[in-house]
Amino acid sequence: LERGYLCACAWGRRTIRMAISQSIIEVGGRRSVRIILALLILFVSHRINQFQFQSGSTSSQNQFPDISDVSISRPKNSPPASFLSSMNLTRDALYEKNYFYRAWMELSSDIDLAGTDKNKFQQSSKRNSRHLAPMEIVIRYIIEHSHQQLQLEWNEACGLSTSAVSPCVLGATKTQRRFVVASYSCPLESGNRLHRFMNGLLWGILTNRTLLWRYQDYAICEEYGEDGCIDQYLNRTKGPLDCDGIIIRSPWIPSYEEWKDKLGFASDHSDIVRAEVWDGQKMYDNTTLPYDGMDAAGSNNDNDRIRVVRTGRQVSLDPGRILTSSEEELLSHSHLTNAENLARLRSLRSEGVYFLYGMLFESLFTLDPSLDPPKELLNDSAPQTIFLHSRHSGQFQDTYTWPDQLCLQWFAHTLGYSQNTSNSNDNNPPTPCHVYLMSDRPKTVSLLTDLVGNVTHCTNTFVGQELQLPNGASSPSFWNEHGPRAGRGFWQDVALSIHARDGMIAFQPNRVLCRTSTALVREMVEFKRVLEHHYQEVFRGELFTRSNTSFIDGELSEFKQCMNPWREKKSDLPLNSGN
Question: How far apart are the first and last CA of the chain?
Answer without folding.
Answer: 72
